[in-house]
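A quick word before the example. In earlier lectures we treated sequence and structure as two separate objects. From today on, think of them as two lines of the same record. Here is tRNA methyltransferase written that way.
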Amino acid sequence: MKIFENIINHKINTITADELLKYAQQFNVAINRQQARRIAEYLRGKSINIFDDGQRTQLVKQIAKLAGPETAREINKLFMQFTKQ
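And the structure line, produced from the sequence above:
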């Protein structure tokens, strides 16, 4: 499963706002274009492992600062969809 995790993490760390919006729509997560842009800009170039609970928690806290707590909860739902095994 490690290869699967690497692929997901790479996508998260290189995601664009449009891709984030597409995934949000696919998984019924409510975010707008401006929030997606801010989040994608923050994620780009980072080396975040969303399968690690500690790193994901820190990331969600940062997203809450960038786009608000409700958006952070929605993004966390999206991350949880990606990490389901």
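Notice the following. Residues 2-83 form one domain. We will return to this example when we discuss secondary structure assignment.
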